[in-house]
């Protein structure tokens, strides 16, 4: 995806020397690289291992400029003005201090697959768009713009004032003062929403929780032992997004 999209400056493509079926796969990379004017170097595994810092590379390494977050100010606003239907089913995903690149990549992959309109991350204490994120996203990061803001709470307040519903997430055992907690199966999507996901260890900050109109919980399939009462953040987000997005699929049938 990085080769086929014109979003990075590309310098060199490194391919592991090989034969047999693997050669057919690398042949496709060679053709794509030639179309973009990217030099191709066939090297040994040790050199590839060194280039990739010991990470899994599957015999391919591309030298390119990094991708950066886009600022919200750069975005065309798909808002609610100019006669748009106020009930249009827009879905944004806001990420507060997601730090693990594998989780961020998996979140982007699910968001892209399930039809999220935009992903916004907090700048502070958040993982950048690294090669590991791109690999974990299975290329979604290469085609899907990711935005950042240095003031997530002000962003959420502004969207709420513009008529959006801000929806947070908690585990089954948590409660939030003055914010209703409901099962994701009971949630009704009837206006543009922002689903806010918190960090891997601490979840949403209290200040962000208090900006939410509702908190969603994923019901478990059994009584859970203490200490294993939660899901990985990317898994939980995928379940929540599917639960919400399935309402759009049903309404279009």
Automatic annotation (TrEMBL):
Q: What does the UniProt entry say about where the protein is found? A: Mitochondrion
Q: Name one GO cellular component term.
A: mitochondrion
* Primary location: mitochondrion
Keyword Transit peptide on this protein? yes
UniProt source species: Bambusicola thoracicus (Chinese bamboo-partridge)
Question: What family is this?
Answer: Belongs to the class IV-like SAM-binding methyltransferase superfamily. RNA methyltransferase TrmH family.
Output this protein's name. rRNA methyltransferase 1, mitochondrial
A molecular function (GO) held by this record is: rRNA (guanine) methyltransferase activity
Q: Which InterPro entries match?
A: Alpha/beta_knot_MTases, MRM1, MRM1_MeTrfase_dom, Ribosomal_eL30-like_sf, SpoU_MeTrfase, SpoU_subst-bd, tRNA_m1G_MTases_N
Pfam families for this protein: SpoU_methylase (PF00588), SpoU_sub_bind (PF08032)
Q: Which SMART domains match?
A: SpoU_sub_bind
Q: Which UniProt keywords apply?
A: Methyltransferase, Mitochondrion, rRNA processing, S-adenosyl-L-methionine, Transferase, Transit peptide
Query: Domain named RNA 2-O ribose methyltransferase substrate binding: which ranges?
Result: 2-70
Q: What is the lineage of its organism?
A: Eukaryota, Metazoa, Chordata, Craniata, Vertebrata
């Amino acid at each position: 995806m990085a080769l086929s999209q014109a979003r990075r400056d590309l310098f060199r493509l490194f391919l592991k020397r090989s034969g047999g079926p693997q050669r057919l796969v690398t042949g496709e990379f060679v053709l794509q690289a030639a179309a973009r004017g990217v030099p191709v170097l066939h090297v040994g595994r040790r050199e590839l291992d060194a280039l990739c810092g010991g990470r899994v590379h599957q015999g391919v390494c591309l030298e390119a400029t990094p991708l950066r977050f886009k600022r919200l100010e750069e975005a065309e606003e798909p808002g609610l003005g100019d006669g748009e239907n106020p009930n249009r089913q827009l879905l944004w995903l806001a990420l507060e201090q997601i730090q693990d690149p594998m989780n961020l990549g998996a979140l982007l992959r699910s968001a892209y697959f399930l039809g999220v309109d935009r992903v916004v991350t907090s700048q502070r204490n958040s993982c950048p768009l690294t090669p590991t994120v791109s690999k974990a996203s299975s290329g979604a990061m290469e085609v899907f713009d990711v935005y950042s803001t240095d003031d997530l709470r002000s962003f959420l307040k502004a969207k709420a004032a513009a008529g959006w519903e801000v929806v947070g997430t908690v585990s089954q055992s948590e409660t939030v003062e003055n914010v209703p907690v409901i099962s994701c199966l009971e949630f009704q999507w009837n206006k543009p929403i922002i689903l806010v996901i918190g960090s891997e260890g601490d979840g949403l900050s209290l200040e962000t929780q208090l900006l939410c109109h509702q908190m969603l919980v994923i019901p478990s399939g059994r009584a859970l032992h203490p200490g294993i009462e939660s899901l990985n953040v990317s898994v939980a987000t995928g379940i929540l997004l599917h639960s919400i997005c399935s309402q759009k699929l049903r309404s279009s049938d």
